[in-house]
Design a protein that fits this description.
The chain has 261 residues and is mostly helical. It has one domain. It is built from nine helices and no strands. Helix 4 runs parallel beside helix 8 and helix 8 runs antiparallel to helix 9.
Length: 261
C-alpha cells in the first residue's frame, strides 16, 4: 500500500506541476499578446528581433533544408527502386519538404539558435536587475522585451520556411538529376504536378505556430530566470528543450487536424 500511495502522490505532484507550468505559460503568452494593440510601440526593438530571428537564421536553415532534400531523394530512391517506383521520388520530396521537413527542421534550427539567445539575453537582464530598472523607468518589461519578440517569431518563421521549401526541393532535384540520372524536365513536371497550395499553406501555418512557440519559450524561461549565471544557463537549456518538444507535439496535432480523413 505504501508503494501505491507513493506512486499516486508522485503522479499527483507531476500533474499539478505540469498544470501550474502550462497555466503560467498561457498567462505569460496572453499578457505578451495583449500589448500588441496597446501603445506605445517599440518598432526598433521589433525590427532588431525580426532581423535576428529571420535574416540571421537564414544560413543555417538554408543549409539544413538543402541537404535534407538531397537525403530524402537518396533514401527514397533506395527504397522505391526495389518496387520500380522511382518516378514517385519527386512527389515524395516535395510533399515531405513542404508539409513536414521544411517547417520542422527550420523550427528546430531556430529554436537552437534564437530561442537559446532570447532566454540567455532576457535571463541575464533578469538576474542583473535590468528588468527591474525598466520598471523603475516606467517602461513595461513585457511590452518592451516580450511582445516584439513574439511578433518577430510569428512573422519571420513562415518566410524562413518558404526559403527552406524552395531549397529542400532544389536539393532533391540536384541529387536526382546529377547522381540518380533523372531527366530534369520530367522531374520538374512531376514536382509541379504533385505540389498543391494546401501543402504549402499548411506548412506556413505550422511555421507561424512554431515561431510563436519558440519565441514564447525563450522569453518565458529568460523572464523567469533566477540564481545568477547558473540559473541563466539552466533557463537557456530549458527553453530549447521545451520549444523542441512542443514544436514536435504541435506538429503532430496540426498534421492530424489538417490531414485527418
Amino acid at each position: 500500500m505504501n508503494a501505491i500511495s507513493d506512486v499516486v502522490r508522485w503522479i499527483g505532484r507531476f500533474v499539478i506541476f505540469s498544470m501550474r507550468g502550462a497555466g503560467g505559460v498561457a498567462l505569460f503568452a496572453a499578457e505578451g499578446l495583449s500589448h500588441v494593440v496597446r501603445p506605445p510601440y517599440y518598432g526598433r526593438v521589433f525590427a532588431a528581433a525580426l532581423l535576428d530571428t529571420g535574416f540571421l537564421s537564414l544560413p543555417v536553415v538554408a543549409l539544413t533544408a538543402l541537404f535534407s532534400g538531397g537525403v530524402i531523394a537518396l533514401q527514397s530512391y533506395t527504397g522505391f527502386a526495389q518496387y520500380h517506383a522511382q518516378s514517385a521520388i519527386a512527389n515524395i520530396v516535395v510533399l515531405a519538404v513542404t508539409r513536414e521537413l521544411g517547417p520542422v527542421l527550420a523550427g528546430l534550427m531556430v529554436a537552437g539558435r534564437v530561442g537559446a539567445a532570447m532566454a540567455a539575453e532576457i535571463g541575464t537582464m533578469r538576474v542583473t536587475d535590468q528588468i527591474d530598472a525598466l520598471t523603475t523607468l516606467r517602461t513595461n518589461p513585457m511590452k518592451y522585451l516580450v511582445t516584439p519578440r513574439l511578433l518577430a517569431g510569428l512573422i519571420a518563421l513562415p518566410f524562413l520556411v518558404m526559403v527552406a521549401d524552395v531549397l529542400g526541393v532544389a536539393g532533391g532535384f540536384t541529387v536526382a538529376v546529377v547522381k540518380l540520372g533523372f531527366a530534369p524536365n520530367s522531374y520538374i513536371t512531376a514536382t509541379l504536378n504533385a505540389l498543391t497550395i494546401e501543402d504549402v499553406t499548411v506548412g506556413l501555418v505550422k511555421a507561424a505556430v512554431f515561431g510563436f512557440i519558440i519565441t514564447l519559450m525563450g522569453c518565458y524561461y529568460g523572464y523567469n530566470s533566477r540564481g545568477g549565471a547558473e540559473g541563466v544557463g539552466s533557463s537557456t537549456t530549458s527553453a530549447v528543450v521545451a520549444a523542441s518538444i512542443l514544436l514536435l507535439a504541435f506538429d503532430y496535432l496540426l498534421t492530424d487536424l489538417f490531414f485527418a480523413q
